[in-house]
Every structure is written in C-alpha cells, then in structure tokens.
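hey so i finally got around to running the thing on that chain from the lab meeting. sorry it took forever, my laptop kept dying and i had to restart like 3 times. anyway pasting the input first so we r on the same page abt which one it is
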Amino acid sequence: MGRLDGKVVVLSAGAQGIGRSVALACAKEGAKVIATDVNIEKLKELEAEGIEVHRLDVTSNADIEAFSAKIEKIDVLFNCAGYVFDGTLLDTDEKSWDFSFDLNVKSMYRMCKQFIPKMIEQGTGGNIINMSSVASSIKGAPNRCVYGATKAAVIGFSKAVAVDYVKNNIRVNCVCPGTVDTPSLQDRLNARPDPKKAYEEFVARQKMGRFASAEEIAHLVVYLASDESAYVTGQEFIIDGGWSM
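ok and heres what got predicted. didnt touch it at all, straight out
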C-alpha cells in the first residue's frame, strides 16, 4: 500500500521544479493528484503518469472559484506557486513588491479561502502545506528583500490558519527549503552576467557543498501529506542542508 492511498492531493505550480516532483511523488504513493499551473503545455506531460491537470492562474479569484467547483473531494492542498525577485530593497520597485506578495502570499489566501470550506463540509478535515523558504523570518539572504518578506508572511499565515482550524481537523504546515536545483534556479543563474561564477557562489554558501534536489523536498511534502504526520500542525519545516545553522 502507498502512504497516500485514497487521498486526493491538489497542488499549484505542478509544471516543473518542486511542484512537479511533489505531484509525481504523491502519485507514486497512491494519491489521486490534481496538478495545476499556468503553463498547461508543460503540465500536460504529467498526464502520462495518471495525474489530472488543469490550467490555473492562482492570482485570479475567478480562475480559482471555477477550478474549485470541479473538485468534489480534497484531502491535501499544496500551495507551491511562487516567484523569486532578485534584488535589495533599493532594487525593488512597487510593481515587483506587489506582484511578489500577490503570487507568493495572496495566492495561498485565495486557495485556502476556496478549499477550507470544502474540507469542513466533507467532514473529514484536510491538510494544507504551504511553500515558504529559509530566506524568510528564519534567515536573511542577500538580494532577497521582497522574497524574504513574502516567505516570512507565509510562515505567519500558515500558523494563523493552523490555529483557527485545528478544531475542524485541518492541519497547516509550511516547508522551508534552502537552495533547490530547479529550472527556476538555473534560469536565474543564467541571467547573471557570469553564470559560472554565480553558480560557484551559490554552491559555496551551501554547507553540504551542493543544492537540494526537488525530489528531496518532495519526500518531506509526502511525509506532511501522509497520516505519518497526523499530530503535526502549525510548524515550519527547514530542509536546507544546514544553511541556516
């Protein structure tokens, strides 16, 4: 038997990176996985693995309302969508600040607003896992001003929702990775004037001398999605290879 047999897992940002790895890992453990993303062409690659896919813009209330109406049952909601703005406070204009908070934080508010009532109504509760980061209230990181602020907000949001709905048998936790080797990271490194030097600098700050893989983050998410973590709520889980030590 799989660790997630019989569970329905809904997740955002499933087209690549951590979201894709989580979708595959949950399906492997027996869950019915419903993956969403704005990149529907890349997302459709998951259909071959038996994963249901939907195009979803998590910055749109209308999109989320229409999508949630299609979901009859939900056990696990994994809010993974996010954006990394690279810059200090003085590099960050208001448009970038507002977009970062809209995608990284408000999207979770929108998703939870739609799916928590379903979790309550179905009588079995539910499980929400939010993507945060070590670059947050846990640790300051260079050139991550607005990103760190949004991820600190995710931790506070997760704890607040956890305490409000614990009596409804709804658990809420967040995952706080360090640097993860994803297409998004590679894009950011390649955008630097000297990608090779940027890569070496990023690796140099990793205490284990390497990045995390998306699959390693997925293992933690599977644990939080499973009944193995049934007594865990309101917590942030650091998985950073010791970077925050």
